[in-house]
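Reviewer 2 asked us to include a model.

Predict the structure of this chain.
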Amino acid sequence: MSKTELVTYVAEEAGLTKVDAAKAVEAVIAGVEKGLKKEGKVTITGFATFTAKKKAAKTGRNPRTGEPVKIPARVAVTIKAGSKLKDALN
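Predicted model (structure tokens):
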């Protein structure tokens, strides 16, 4: 499902205009981003837990040449599905 399809779904399910639904979806995304930056974790009970994890710098290899490549440190996001989401999918 794309973001546009999600906005359309939210608009239909909540009885909102697409403009209002788009604002709501954007607000949720911004809230998750802000929570990850500030606290490193966002939990939506029953749905999912988003966690920001620091990854250390490391040395990788270029698969074509075999030369070592430096990979800088970064922050990666992991997502763990909640019980209601797992139940809905199974």
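Residues 18-39 form the longest helix (22 residues). The beta strands are 41-44, 48-55, 58-61, 68-71, 74-81. We have added this to the supplementary material.
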